[in-house]
Amino acid sequence: MRKDFLWGGAVAAHQLEGAWNVDGKGVSIADVMTAAKHGVERQITAGVQPGAYYPNHQGIDFYHQYPTDIKLMAEMGFKTFRTSIAWSRIFPQGDEVEPNEAGLAFYDRLFATCLKYGIQPMITLSHFEMPYHLVEAYGGWRDRRLIDFFLHFAKTVFKRYQHQVKYWMTFNEINNQTDYTKAFFMATNSGLVLKPDDPQAEALMYQAAHYELVASAKAVQLGHQINSAFQIGNMINMTPIYPLTAKPADQLAAQKAMQTRYWYTDVQTLGTYPNYMEAYFKRQNYRPDITAADRAALQAGTVDYIGLSYYNSFTVKAQTNQPEYRFLGEQATVANPYVQASDWGWSVDPDGLRYGLNWLNDHYHKPLMIVENGLGAVDQVTADHQIHDDYRIAYLKAHIQAMKTAIEVDGVDVMGYTPWGCIDLISAGTGQMSKRYGMIYVDQDDHGHGSLRRLKKDSFYWYQHVIATNGQDL
Ligand code: P53
């Protein structure tokens, strides 16, 4: 383990800040998403509809309660706190020239509070919360002009916080949109709002992803010009895909599925499109707008580290005898008989974290930062206000152990570990409050009712000890 290992926790602005229309903030894509549950998808409404319930509007009111929340994180011993800057607080519409000073001032206060406790803010630039105006007026990331809007936002915050923030990452889980049949991923990653079964969905996804990759590479270059000490990473959802059997066709199916899901990382770390993607575009007769200048930017803006989330693994088996082995996302996966699943159907597979870390290390040879990991579960509060979340401790313990094995046995360079939702917040996938990840409990239900009071769970004290011993005692 590094001596300066970055222990901490992770959140995203739209899932906890609330204050959706306070101090000049504009509407974001997350502000037009309704609440749902396991098996029911969140709806993306056309603007904010009267009478509809949008859980992100209130979040957990972190916008006002952050001083006490950061204090609790300091008590756990956090070295870093990963959050995002809500793009629509800084540029309410997304295409303005002048930033919203009140939005910038909020992050001045938040970062000063973190630094007061020796907690380094770690910042995601775009985490599922682009200004909704960019979705309505430009169709989201299908439009090349989004690159410059994003860079203007990036430049504004890089300059403003260059002395407060060292660790940055560009687009959260940029590879979720691989699953282009899911409206949620297309909207959250790229502001692409399509009709179900739109025949253009896949081609539009590749175009949008390309513009994001160019924007990401240019942001890396820009950030380094503003402060050469910045560490700027990408952020991918690492869900290893296993073959169900040793049958060669199953092996190929898994290998091709990994290519389909992780080519983004090739572009962001190696600076070029992998040959299988160029071949795929040709075969499909997709002609994405990829210019020579874009290719030069990709080459010049490779990331300093790879940020990853890890929750679960997938398993596939060959469906056809065709050489393509197309992978259509989670719907194309099969159950893995060797792993259990959470109440929300996510497999629980600590070895998969070790596997994923090794896979990334083998392919890219860059430092890795685990910026999300955790178990979404229902918690019970006892009569004396305790939360005995031994299931969460067991999950985190097994995953930290797997990470330690990757570091100590396999020699992988891991810079830090920031488990997801260190304080309970709104679930991205379902909009629920009851899908809890935190070590800090927040009293609120799925309808937005509750005192918002914060309580320490058993995992709070457990994680505090893990950090105090730099991961020695789990
Ligand atoms: P929730 C889907 C698949 C994997 C990770 O997810 C995902 C999603 C989107 O739901 O999101 C990441 O809240 C994401 C966070 C999110 C977290 O995982 O659906 O970066 O914003 O909250 C957990 O349980």
Automatic annotation (TrEMBL):
<protein>
    <submittedName>
        <fullName>6-phospho-beta-glucosidase</fullName>
        <ecNumber>3.2.1.86</ecNumber>
    </submittedName>
</protein>
<keyword id="KW-0326">Glycosidase</keyword>
<dbReference type="InterPro" id="IPR001360">
    <property type="entry name" value="Glyco_hydro_1"/>
</dbReference>
<dbReference type="GO" id="GO:0008706">
    <property type="term" value="F:6-phospho-beta-glucosidase activity"/>
</dbReference>
<comment type="similarity">
    <text>Belongs to the glycosyl hydrolase 1 family.</text>
</comment>
<dbReference type="InterPro" id="IPR033132">
    <property type="entry name" value="GH_1_N_CS"/>
</dbReference>
<dbReference type="Pfam" id="PF00232">
    <property type="entry name" value="Glyco_hydro_1"/>
</dbReference>
<dbReference type="InterPro" id="IPR017853">
    <property type="entry name" value="GH"/>
</dbReference>
<keyword id="KW-0378">Hydrolase</keyword>
